[in-house]
Design brief:
With 349 residues, the protein is an alpha/beta fold. The protein is built from eleven helices and 14 strands. The structure holds adenosine-5'-triphosphate. It comes from Selenomonas bovis.
Amino acid sequence: MIKLSHIVKTYDSPAGPVHALKDISLEVARGEIFGIIGLSGAGKSTLIRCINMLERPTSGTVEVDGRDLTAMNNRELRAVRKKIGMIFQHFNLLSSATVYDNVAFPLRLAGTAEDTIRTKVTDLLGLVGLADKAHQYPSQLSGGQKQRVGIARALASDPSVLLCDEATSALDPQTTKAILRLIADINKKLGLTVVVITHEMQVIKDICDKVAVIDKGVIAEQGTVFDIFTEPQQPITREFISVLLSNDLPAAFRGSAVTQEKTPGSLLLLRLTFLGESADDPVLAGMIRKFPDVETTMLFGTLDQIKEMPFGRMIVGLTGPDESVTAALAYLKEKDLKEEVIGYAKRHD
Ligand SMILES: Nc1ncnc2c1ncn2[C@@H]1O[C@H](COP(=O)(O)OP(=O)(O)OP(=O)(O)O)[C@@H](O)[C@H]1O
């Protein structure tokens, strides 16, 4: 539905060329919420602005719904852009216009009849929870309410794609949650394809299906949010995730050498990750029942969510006869979870 192929964007600046994007390729499926995360200056804004051609790529192609935007003239682009809504970090509302007129703005530009506009704006304000604010001005609204106006305005021309450029970065955590929930609801209700750029992994974890990590103009890594969370490959991805997930060993093991060889009195440390149904499944209880001679120590456990999916993480330590520990490990491997052997370690006294 959105296909970026070999996008390069080089800006000219007095100090010389700035290589903002260097050969970026990615695909976003219809109805998906796709996140792009990167540090400041990584190229996120440039990339999202290439999707609706607010920035023309220096080379490469941008396809939306099978149509190549890079091959279009300005008139054709204007028509296609109506199907690509966008919301911004600083909302970009008209301060001298009411909430109603801000949302009506793109419809008036398109020459829509006033009675159609009335119905449409009223419906949209209802959808974003601002039915009672139609006649207020942006200065009378909170940040979250302003972004709701931005979302209603972006939806006015019935887009198939919604681009969110750091849409929650100016908002407090609670308001961020509420706006993300609204974006996820709209994605579900209207089947919109959503692209989100952010520097916060929490945003990715809360609403995205897939994520691309962008670093210095290239994609360092991309995949499903679950895979990226559970098996990050690149140091930059690990850094983003470490803000949310502690991968540290429990205090009782910190500082002790973790070896890959079993030593007398050491525990086999396992990191277990459960997603979805299996997060509530008593897999560990089953293992303990089946292998009573394996002593299982729970060292760390947390239950979280990726999008709406339960996501549990545990670190357990196993000791017992070698063959039973091996069989217990094999039992876990058959179950619907990810297991990672951290190594062997001794508990401090
Ligand atoms: N119009 C421009 N002219 C010259 N250089 C630019 C222009 N716009 C962006 N850049 C440069 O391109 C690089 C990528 O910028 P971009 O704004 O896309 O990054 P970003 O990841 O969105 O960063 P931030 O989160 O800070 O907004 C940066 O080095 C930036 O200085």
